[in-house]
From TrEMBL, chain A:
Residues 1-23 form the signal peptide. Transmembrane segments: none annotated. It comes from the Bacteria. It comes from Afifella marina DSM 2698. This is Prokaryotic molybdopterin-containing oxidoreductase family, iron-sulfur binding subunit.
UniProtKB/TrEMBL annotation, chain B:
One of its GO terms (cellular component) is plasma membrane. PANTHER family: POLYSULPHIDE REDUCTASE NRFD (PTHR43044:SF2), PTHR43044. InterPro entries: NrfD-like (IPR005614). Keywords: Cell membrane, Membrane, Transmembrane, Transmembrane helix. Belongs to the NrfD family. This is Prokaryotic molybdopterin-containing oxidoreductase family, membrane subunit. It comes from Afifella marina DSM 2698. It is a multi-pass membrane protein. Pfam families: NrfD. The chain crosses the membrane at residues 55-79, 99-119, 131-149, 177-197, 246-266, 278-298, 319-341, 361-380, 387-410, 430-451. Its main location: membrane.
Length: 940, 469
């Protein structure tokens, strides 16, 4: 090369610039406008589609909100017959959809493979099985209610008669169905009508707790306790017998803590009082006797309006007994209805049969889908090892979880929001599931995978679904039927006719519980992780358990007297041994727990859940046994002085005699004449003037069951960051609405009180005058708003907030200092574009969902009309299954919120401070007034 | 520090007293008649001497190390956010605000001593006012750092200032923090001016005594061409007295406003009308204790027993005792009002103070602030440097605990029990706190080597007064 002249120099410069520009850094992204704009899509405007997500196979009907093709929020589908608010699982589904830990590729062993590669091995194998009529072929799925799936599996079993279908649900309701069979000779699924009941008895049934029917039950239960709306004539009274304080027990008027093994005995005593014969009578303590006396008296007083519910953890005999009681009390068809549970699905075998077959070497090919048995199977056998005995195993699921790690092949599945499918809701209504987004990864649905048995892995799910319904709908004009059903999200009138069973069999005595020296272990589904499926969902991990307020882990719940005997305190590590198995987990002294019972939440301690959920808490599945899934007796405990981690969001549970939650008996509410005497302290500042709307909220504490759906709904709607266990431990959780949980009375029989606390949006807001930069200001519609980009983070507002509802970003939780992988760009897709993500160092808080107010107002403006009453609904309000949260314009005298604000039992929290909150409360009404300090369980 | 006499001035004073009976009048504070030259040498020699003791160097290195720690803590804080501190959603202020209040309290006494004693013609102040004012300045400067450091977004601290801006927003005038911003700023500026004007004649003396070179030039520049003419003195005197008169309300305002930071809200334990005066007294109390804490080592290190006498310690001891009693009454008033006002939350908070999670600290605080200072009733305690230093250190600790407890008790035990949380400081809270202590010491060590740490011209005036009897 010759001497460098000007031209060469310039060329070199250009070349090096081009090299450096091209070598590293981000590939330039082309932003191109749509060539063909999708129909109805307006950039920045959300679209809504009816679909559903499933929990244990049961549909939770939702309206999915999507922005530019990206689902961001799920709202309950109000038109659906089973629609009734939402639950935390449904609200958190959005986050799971975008979980970067989801399985992204087909795997063979540890290697990445392809669907074609899988088809190349699997299809010939199926052909070989077909030649043997399906011998050696096994399919194991999780719980399902999908008619199309049932259809497909029936066809499959017809073609492969020797093949077998197994189902495994670690939280299955086998006892419920078996109980109905015992009573009525037929497997029936009871549906409870709490709305028609006046006296409800729960025999260890946590019907208000987390579960697929939670929202439906809660809505009906709430209707039985709501005193506004239709004129209330009576009031639901709830008696609960249970070992560990559940959400249902928390809402009880009268509660008896009893070991799980003793519930049957107590149930028989009740039945005996109603004339059942041949039942053994046992000895009974005084407090239990009083409890039963009162219960029996009330049941008799409410014939036709009485309801006895037995829990899934109770043996079939107790269910049969409950059915008999319901019949005796005239509740059949009134307070309890039955859905057929045996006519759609082909009979499925259980896990036990599968294990036996594997052991016997009968299984050659095993397809596992929608369940994670390696983690969730009980401790009687080592499924991981057993899977090694099967020559060809396939796992199909959302995650490469514990089971996937031990199968020959792993296939990524589709999230409900990516899939075409169907499922039945809690009331039996067929609910259609349509995708809100194209599959994010290379997943395929179970329909496609099962397609392999019919020769192809490339089946079009939509066509599979349509093909089934073309046959099953019986509609003359299928296309119209399809469009209508898809648009509505459900098939109208598809709930099966409720069955009126013949008379219930007279209960047979239950084998008496073996009286054991040791402790009783009570296994419970977790209110947040369910059976562990949600372990990698950070919203759910950080959602406080409604009763224990635990986050990011589980604990051994120990009754106060046992704790005293064992000499342990909260956080002491406890060694639990049951036969060969032993494990250590932190103890927590639990209020209202039966002596001798240890409460253990399932779903924790997963080794391969993902970045968020792995190794959080302790796995208690090894202590379970397949023949006794729900409790074990004879456990031994050893207290240690070592400390485990116990992270709770509320450390103090006593109201300290302060008037925080007001109480009222139903009788006082009906006949009370006392006028409201709210003495509002004077203020030097002039009153605000609201020419247009003035937003306000009323929270009805009579019906709030504490389920916490609102907390997750708010998190999803308002882009509330997760802070992680370390930060929660330091007391820095970010939820804008929290549910305060107080106990009243003696620790072993305390009454539980819930109080949802969002921002009060005070008229004389203490936060407003103290902010030096006017970041906390009052808007012209009554909202107390926080201007994030003006906030400099003095935190004076929170220092002066008597409700402590403001939340400070101590770190950049929302972006650069996010917990673990929560700053992954994929997760960012879950964010609501209408709400800014807050940066480090700013204060944030509940906004009354101001973005929804604005959107509604803009829409009304465009349409040239006034806002309708009830047109703006906050996220928490929408999610609430019991309508405990009412929001609206207090300037309108006809609005529901105005009416409730005028109610006699409406009051302001800490009203004596003169803050004049716009969020106010309705006193907590119970059938019997529990005045502060009185012995719980007395009265009546 | 060369040529330490065999008998210390304390011993000499004892002998004099033994001969002549207790000293009275100005002689109490200047026991030995000293020539102007002697006074100048006493103060100027340590200043202009090239060699300094090993202790000074060790102290300097230690405080420098602590200052580096402070800088690291601040950088770490800026890099990571205030999450590095032990704050939680209920205890949102913690150490930062508590230490701010403590420092501003320390910063209170210097100006108070100077101006109040000047106005009340307490001439003995001449021996202590200079370094008390320096202490004020340094403490107030450090205190001024905290409110900025504690911000979530400290780079926007200037939004507290009213300046024309494109946002069209002014500060929120109702916020005590804005009052605070002005109170600290004016107090800091004023303290600096007050201190500096008092310093000018002495800087001129330093200029005149310094060897030619950089040092002389520097002192020359700093003394603003002071000639010592009668007109210079006249101007100085009139300005100084006027400034003193203006300083007193400022001293009161700055700490009243700090009190209002808490009292203007409605949190139990904070929303008390007693807070502004209570904070002023607390500030004076901790400030005086800090003056004593500093005076004794200085007097020892620079052999100034002749200028800072035990009689000085004695009057300051009386002052501490007096303030201690007022503090005790203030505490008692708080308890009484909590009961008398009848608010459940207030009463509960008082019980929480005595028996709750922070109870050991509260009891220790009461011991340090109310019980230990009672020893000052005894003249021997007031006049024995070691004993009064012990009491002063106890008060420093007690007042620091008080600030910490005020800032953490109320948020830990507010209106809704569901939000009760305990505050636990992290390592970064401590490093910043000790770092600022080191920085304060560093500034002070440099100060005693750089400017006359005792007001020469005022001591001379006092000496002249003494001669006249």
């Amino acid at each position: 090369m010759g001497p460098v002249n000007r031209r060469t120099a310039l060329k070199l410069m250009a070349a090096s610039a081009a090299v450096s520009a091209g070598a590293c850094g981000r590939q330039p992204e082309a932003i191109v406008p749509y060539v063909n704009m999708p129909e109805r899509l307006v950039p920045g405007e959300p679209l809504a589609f009816a679909t559903a997500v499933t929990l244990s196979g049961v549909a939770q009907p939702v309206i999915g909100q999507t922005f530019d093709g990206r689902p961001t929020k799920l709202e309950p589908n109000g038109d659906h017959p089973a629609a009734s608010g939402s639950d935390a699982f449904t609200q958190a589904a959005i986050l799971s959809l975008y979980d970067p830990d989801r399985s992204k590729a087909v795997r063979k062993g540890a290697d990445t493979a392809s669907w074609d590669g899988f088809a190349g091995e699997f299809l010939p194998r199926i052909e070989a099985h077909r030649a043997k009529r399906g011998e050696g072929l096994r399919i194991l799925t999780g719980p399902s209610t999908s008619p199309t799936f049932f259809d497909q599996i029936s066809t499959l079993l017809d073609r492969f008669p020797e093949a077998r279908w197994h189902q495994w649900d670690p939280l299955g309701e086998e006892n419920v169905l078996a109980g109905a069979e015992l009573a009525f000779g037929r497997r029936l699924k009871p549906v409870y009508r709490f709305d028609r009941a006046r006296c409800v008895v729960s025999l260890d049934a946590d019907f208000l707790g987390a579960g697929p029917e939670q929202t439906l039950n809660a809505a009906r239960f709430g209707a039985g306790r709501r005193v506004w709306g239709a004129k209330a004539e009576g009031f639901l009274r709830l008696h609960v017998i249970e070992p560990v304080l559940s959400l249902t027990g928390s809402n009880a008027d009268h509660r008896l803590a009893a070991r799980r093994g003793r519930v049957a005995e107590l149930a028989q005593m009740i039945a005996a009082r109603f004339g059942a014969e041949n039942l053994p009578e046992g000895g009974i303590e005084e407090d239990a006797r009083i409890f039963l006396e009162r219960l029996v008296q009330e049941l008799s007083a409410h014939r036709g309006q009485a309801l006895v519910v037995a829990g899934a953890a109770q043996p079939p005999e107790v269910h049969a007994l409950a059915h008999w009681l319901n019949e005796t009390l005239g509740g059949l068809g009134e307070t309890v209805e039955f859905l057929p549970a045996d006519d759609e699905a082909p009979p499925a075998a259980g896990l036990r049969e599968l294990v036996d077959d594997i052991d016997a070497g009968h299984v050659e090919t095993l397809l596992i889908s929608g369940t994670n048995p390696v983690y969730s199977a009980p401790g009687d056998f080592d499924l991981a090892e057993l899977l090694g005995k099967v020559p060809f195993t396939v796992h199909h699921g959302l995650y490469r979880n514990e089971t996937a790690a031990r199968t020959t092949w792993h296939l990524p599945a589709l999230h409900d929001l990516e899939a075409w499918s169907d499922a039945r809701a809690g009331d039996g209504t067929v609910t259609l599931i349509q995708p809100l987004i194209t599959p994010l990864f290379r997943g395929r649905s179970l329909f496609s995978v099962l397609g392999a048995f019919f020769g192809t892995l490339d089946a079009d799910d939509r066509e599979v679904l349509r093909a089934h319904w073309r046959r099953a709908s019986g509609a003359g004009d299928f296309e119209t039927w399809w469009r209508k059903s898809l648009r509505a999200g459900f098939v109208e009138g598809s709930a099966p006719q409720s069955v009126r069973p013949s008379a219930a069999a007279v209960p047979k005595p239950v084998a008496p519980a073996v009286e054991d020296e040791g402790y009783e272990l009570v296994f419970r589904p977790d209110t947040k992780l369910w059976d562990g499926d949600f372990a990698n969902n950070a919203w759910l991990q950080e959602l406080p358990d409604p009763v224990t307020k635990l986050v990011w882990g589980n604990a051994a719940l120990v009754s106060p007297s046992d704790a005293l005997n064992l000499g342990i305190e909260d956080g002491n590590l406890l060694e639990i041994s049951l036969g060969e198995n032993r494990l250590m987990l932190p103890a927590m002294v639990a209020v209202g727990q039966a002596e001798g019972a240890i409460g253990l939440a399932l779903g924790y301690g997963r080794p391969e859940a993902g970045v968020i959920g792995s190794a959080v808490g302790v796995d208690v599945n090894p202590l379970r046994r397949l023949d006794a899934l729900w409790h074990a007796t004879g456990a031994e405990l050893r207290a240690t002085s070592d400390r485990g981690r116990l992270i709770r969001t509320q450390e103090h549970s006593d109201m300290e005699g302060r008037e925080i939650i007001r109480d009222l008996s139903f009788a006082d509410f009906l006949h009370g004449t006392e006028e409201k005497d709210e003495e509002v302290p004077p203020s030097l500042y002039p009153d605000w003037d609201y020419p247009d709307a003035a937003w306000g909220m009323v929270i009805d504490q009579s019906v709030c069951i504490g389920c916490s759906a609102c907390v997750t709904a708010c998190q999803s709607e308002n882009n509330i960051p997760v802070v992680g266990p370390e930060e929660v431990e330091r007391g820095r959780e970010m939820h804008w609405i929290r549910i305060d949980r107080y106990f009243r009375g003696e620790p072993d029989a305390a009454e539980v009180l819930f109080q949802p606390v969002p921002c009060m949006h005070c008229e004389k807001a203490p936060c407003e005058p103290v902010c030096p930069v006017e970041a906390s200001v009052h808007d012209r519609e009554g909202l107390n708003v926080q201007v994030y980009n003006r906030c400099i983070g003095t935190r004076f507002c929170q220092a002066n907030c008597p409700y402590k509802v403001r939340r400070f970003n101590f770190y950049g939780y929302g972006d650069e200092q996010a917990y673990e992988n929560l700053d992954d760009p994929l997760y960012q897709a879950a964010a609501n574009p209408d709400v800014s993500v807050r940066s480090r160092g700013v204060m944030e808080k509940c906004t009354y969902c101001v973005q929804r107010i604005s959107r509604a107002q803009q829409r009304a403006d465009r349409e040239g009309r006034e806002l309708d009453e009830g047109e703006v609904r906050t996220a928490c309000q929408n999610a609430c299954p019991t309508q405990a949260i009412v929001f609206g314009d207090t300037n309108r005298k006809d609005s529901l919120v105005s009416k409730l604000k005028r109610a006699r039992h409406e009051y302001d929290l800490l009203g004596e401070l003169g803050t004049r909150p716009r969020t106010s409360y309705l006193a907590r009404i119970r059938a019997v007034a529990a005045s502060a300090g009185s012995e719980p369980g007395e009265g009546a | 520090m060369s040529g330490r006499p065999t008998t210390t001035p304390d011993q000499a004073a004892d002998q004099t007293e033994a001969r002549q009976g207790p000293l009275r009048g100005p002689a109490e504070y200047l026991p030995e008649p000293m020539s102007y030259e002697a006074i100048t040498s006493e103060v100027m020699n340590p200043l202009l001497m090239t060699r300094v003791g090993r202790i000074w160097w060790i102290s300097l290195l230690v405080s420098l190390a602590l200052t580096v720690m402070m800088v690291v803590s601040i950088l770490w804080l800026f890099a990571n956010g205030i999450g590095v501190w032990g704050l939680n959603q209920s205890n949102i202020w913690g150490f930062a605000i508590a230490n701010y209040v403590w420092w501003i309290g320390i910063g209170n006494a210097g100006t108070l001593i100077s101006s109040m004693l000047l106005l009340t013609r307490q001439r003995w102040r001449a021996s202590v006012n200079r370094f008390a004012e320096a202490m004020t300045l340094f403490a107030a400067a450090i205190a001024g750092l905290y409110p900025i450091l504690h911000l979530g977004r400290p780079w926007f601290f200037y939004w507290l200032m009213p300046y024309p801006n494109t946002m069209g927003v002014w500060p929120q005038w109702r916020s005590p923090l804005v009052w605070d911003f002005f109170a600290i700023a004016s107090y800091l500026i004023f303290s600096l001016l007050f201190w500096y004007t008092g310093l000018i004649p002495d800087l001129a003396t330093a200029r005149d005594r310094a060897a030619p070179g950089l040092r002389r030039a520097l002192y020359g520049f700093m003394s603003f061409g002071w000639t010592g003419s009668a007109s210079d003195w006249l101007r100085l005197e009139s300005f100084y007295k006027t400034a003193a008169a203006m300083a007193v309300p400022l001293v009161f305002s700055v700490h009243s406003v700090v009190g209002l930071d808490f009292a203007a809200g409605l949190a139990p334990g904070w929303a008390e009308t007693i807070f502004p005066p209570y904070f002023v007294i607390g500030a004076a109390y901790s400030g005086f204790a800090m003056v004593v804490t500093l005076a004794i080592p200085i007097r020892w290190a620079f052999n100034l027993q002749g200028l800072v006498t035990r009689s000085h310690l004695n009057v300051m001891g009386k002052m501490l005792l007096f303030l201690s009693l007022i503090m005790t009454i203030s505490y008692a008033t708080e308890w009484f009002m909590a009961w008398y006002a009848g608010s459940e939350a207030e009463r509960d908070l008082v019980l929480f103070k005595f028996f709750g999670a922070y109870a050991p600290y509260y009891w220790l605080m009461l011991a340090c602030n109310c019980v230990i200072p009672l020893a000052l009733w005894l003249p021997v305690v007031r006049r024995t440097p070691k004993l009064i230093l012990g009491v002063a250190l106890a008060i420093n600790l007690g007042m620091w605990l008080e600030r910490i407890l005020i800032t953490t008790t109320t948020p830990s035990h507010g209106h809704l029990p569901s939000s009760w949380q305990i505050y636990t400081p992290t390592i970064w809270d401590w490093t910043l706190w000790f770092g600022t202590l080191g920085f304060f010491t560093l500034l002070f060590l440099i100060f005693v080597r750089l400017v006359p740490f005792i007001s020469l011209h005022e001591v001379k005036q006092f000496d002249w007064q003494r001669r006249r009897g």
